[in-house]
Amino acid sequence: MTHKMDIDTFKTAFDGGTRPNRFVVEIELGQGNSLANQLMVKAGSMPAETIGILQVPFRGRVAKLPGDRAYPEWTFTMIDEITDDMRTAFTDWHNRFNDHELNTVANTNVLRGTGPEYGTAVVKQLDMMGTVIRCKQLMRTWPVEVGAIDLSYDTTDTLTEYSITLAYDYLKDC
Question: Which of 161, 169, 152, 172 shows the shortest CA–CA distance to 44?
């Protein structure tokens, strides 16, 4: 069987592809605090989907079987804005899970893994027309880390940025 692969066949099958700079991130920070239209996200990713591997030894060989689904933490990069509203919103959310001064949680539901402190993140990948082609919801999110802001006298002509890392329980298609 002969496969014809010339440039015209490739372009017809290709259908334009997707671009990594076409995306939207929306986050509900728990307790009804939403940053849907305000986020200054510079970079992110569609969250990974992972199934672990169970390795079962048998007579000198290892049989690999599907294990449990895992949800690795999700990190995205924010552009720092001069008003500090976004970073403050994330640090306030972070603080509800463990207070800086008192080393306490906002309420006992946090310890049970429930409560209004948990949020939802939505990542949408867009086509060149702005239409959503992929959408994932990260359910029951909470901030693991509000990243450092690097400062330096020798850095010029760039915007300040920092990362946010969220943990979540599971993914859903939007």
Answer: 161
The residue to which tokens 């693991």 are assigned: 144
Structural domain including 97 reads: 23-48+67-173
Q: Is residue 73 in a domain? A: yes
Q: What does the buried/exposed string (b/e) look like for 55-91 if buried means 16 or more CB atoms within 10 Å of the residue's CB?
A: eeeeeeeeeeeeeeeebeebebebeeeeeeebbebbe
For tokens 């800086």, what's the residue?
Answer: 100
The pTM of this model reads: 0.83
Whole-angstrom CA distances from 69 to 13, 44, 74, 140, 143 are 33, 22, 15, 16, 21
**Torsion angle defined by CA atoms of residues 22, 28, 34 and 37, in that order, rounded to the nearest 10 degrees:** 0
The verdict on residue 160 lying in a domain is: yes
Cβ neighbour number for residue 158 with a 10 Å cutoff: 7
Q: What is the pLDDT along the chain (174 residues), one digit of tens a residue?
A: 666 778 888 777 777 788 888 999 999 888 767 665 567 889 999 999 899 999 999 999 999 999 999 999 999 999 988 887 888 889 988 888 888 788 877 777 777 777 788 999 999 999 989 999 999 999 999 999 999 999 999 988 989 999 999 999 999 999
Number of domains observed in the structure of the chain:
1
